[in-house]
Amino acid sequence: MNAEAIERGAVLGAGTMGHGIAQVLAACGVATRLFDVERDAVDRGLAKIDANLSKGVEKGKVDPADRETTLARLSGSTDLDEAIEGAHVVVEAVPESLELKRQIFGELGRNLGPDVLLATNTSSLSITSIAESAEHPERVLGMHFFNPVHIMKLVEVVRPRNCSDEAARTALDLARRMGKDPIDVQDHPGFASSRLGIAIGMEAIRMVADGVASAEDIDKAMTLGYGFPMGPLKLTDLVGLDVRLAIADYLQRELGPRFAPPRLLRDMVARGELGKKSGKGFYDWND
């Protein structure tokens, strides 16, 4: 495996993370197919990439010629076999279901040769368990990107048990080729970022529930006092309260009660207050 030799790739899942990963993969010179089970989802993903690049051109951050070449490297498909044909790397970005991911990697392992790098974008699930479902699990690892993918520099390259050094080195080099600044992490629950992020986020929610201060002022304490680029409650709204609840539940099961989600978070999710995507969370996003 050699990151510079990667010419073709596939991204499975055209949602928020998937289309972002496809964008940065295509932008670094890789012919990329974006796969989803629904044609509308594929079309929406490709349209969002187009919009991201157009906005970049308007702001002077993307050269118009680079926009055109990036778009030319992208295609979409609802046929998995077609999407992964000839791929040197496949990045999975489907919903956070261990069963679904194991099913996908089982199929990828059967259909792709041992030299193809297989990566999951999971933010918390056991990559060792995912890798075990694939043939040649030594080439399976985590590449955890952050939203918005085309802007955020961090990628966690997560090594499951039995991951080869070659696969990890290729993933780290590929992340750098995409303009990212990767970190090398072992496969422990929550990795590095989710484990720390959830701990801070859950405590911030407890502070809201206890009436310590408003969500805005708690966030301001972290942005102005500690230099965070965004407060933990606004970040929770952007990620999705339902997503953070699922991660917190998983970490509680794996690591103990210190990650137990507050009742306020469960109540807000039950009311459909999921953050920006629903229009309301700790902030009002309707405007």
Word description of this protein:
The protein is of the alpha/beta class and 287 residues long. The chain folds into 2 domains: 3-186, Rossmann fold; 193-270, Orthogonal Bundle (N-(1-d-carboxylethyl)-l-norvaline Dehydrogenase, domain 2), CATH 1.10.1040. Helix content is 48%, strand content 14%. It has 12 helices and 8 strands. The chain has helices at residues 16-27, 39-58, 64-72, 80-84, 98-111, 127-131, 165-177, 193-209, 215-225, 232-239, 241-255, 263-270, and strands at 8-12, 31-35, 74-77, 89-92, 117-120, 140-144, 154-159, 181-186. It has an 8-stranded mixed sheet, with helices on both faces. Strand 7, helix 7 and strand 8 (181-186) form a beta-alpha-beta unit. Helix 1 crosses helix 2 (39-58), helix 8 packs across helix 10 (232-239) and helix 8 crosses helix 11. It is globular and about 55 Å long.
Entry summary:
This protein has 287 residues and is an alpha/beta fold.
- Using the 3D structure, state the CATH architecture of the largest domain: 3-Layer(aba) Sandwich
CATH superfamily of the largest domain: NAD(P)-binding Rossmann-like Domain
Shape by Cα distribution:
globular
**What strand order characterises the main sheet?**
3-2-1-4-5-6-7-8
User: What would CATH call the class of the largest domain?
Assistant: Alpha Beta
% residues in beta strands = 5-15%
Given the structure, what is the number of helices? 12
**Helicity level, as a percent range?**
40-55%
Number of self-contained structural domains? 2
Can you tell me the CATH topology of the largest domain?
Rossmann fold
**What does the main sheet amount to?**
8 strands, mixed
Structural class per helix/strand content? alpha/beta
Order of helices and strands: EHEHHEHEHEHEEHEHHHHH
> What gyration radius follows from the Cα positions, in whole Å?
19 Å
Average pLDDT metric: 96
- Low-pLDDT segments: none
By DSSP, the count of extended strands is: 8
* C-alpha termini separation: 48 Å
